[in-house]
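User:
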Amino acid sequence: MFMYFDPMYLLFMAPALILAGIASAKTKGTFKKYSRVAASSRLTGAQAARRMLDRNGLQDVQIFRARGFLSDHYNPANRSLNLSPDVHDSQSLSSIGVACHEAGHALQHAENYAPLKWRSALVPITQFSSHGAYIFILLGVFMQSMAMSQFGVILFGVGFVFALVTLPVEWDATARAKRLMVGDGIVQPQEAHDAGKVLDAAFLTYVAAAVSALLTLLYYALRLGLLGGRDD
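Assistant: Predicted structure:
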């Protein structure tokens, strides 16, 4: 078991791989398209996020320039927005959309948005489970310990729960961004619609991650006999 290439693995993971490829291509393509369109306000991504934060009472949230392409994220530990150079410094609709999405996470944090709290609580164990799952399953196989392998499957389950909880967090941050970009005078309604296309494409990557996590969980549960009987 697991000592050979298993065609069943590809059968399980093919839908997730295809969806991930589509999501990645769509996100990059949409971001590139609207990175050529400047907002009428001429605000940069950093300025747009700053306005959105300030007008919603979050003057103490800092904004930093991060490294990497689309490495943008909100850090709840130090309450900071970290924007990639392409987002931080650009006046494009793509940059404003992404920056306001990250500001949406800051608003979630300030309001104690439950799914964000759940996701934050899951981060440490998910970081362990992403590597530990394979280790425990392989150790269980070599040591002929079904309990150890089953614990590895449970760790895959943690990864799936994390991916699942991430979906409402990202969807809500996008919804906030679309609404407040207009409400806070950052972009015009049509511009918000176009900027939102970037965020909608990016959300598909989180859907792909959730599908991948689910199919991985189901595959190992099936191969270990936790679904449909033991497969030796």
